[in-house]
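Request: Mind sharing a record?
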Amino acid sequence: MSVEAPVLTAIPLAAWERDALAVALSKAGLPTEDVREKGPLFWRYNTREDLPAGFGGMEIYGDLALLRSIVVLPVVRQHGFGDAIVAALENEARAKGCKSIWLFTTTARRYFERLGYTMRAFDAVPEAIKSSRQYKLCQDGQAMVKTLSAPPPADSAAPGAPA
């Protein structure tokens, strides 16, 4: 039996809205040191019912993206929202022309492997990503990467879409 992925709405967070993200990350035991800095892009993800489900962010370095600060709120965990947030961020990275997406984790290696990410040595991280504050904060973690497929051409219709 296939479970339908949750439908989420992404709402970009302004710098002054990042306190809620910092609280959610802190409660999940994730780093918050640079959440309020300029540079990283963050979104709040709401359910169909317009209720907050979680947060996620990324940084763009040319054709590379750095996935970061993904947290699902406790009341909706175990319902596919994490997968939906990661998929939304991967789509955003594709739309921005990124060819691969990197992340650092201390606790979620198996989760990200299930989503197609592979382990890389910390010294194999591209120089652009090494320049990030996240790289410096996550030296005790594991580096992972996923190659992003190219988005379909703008003029091609999705299967089942009206012509």
In short: The radius of gyration is 16 Å. Residues 105 and 142 are 5 Å apart (CA to CA).
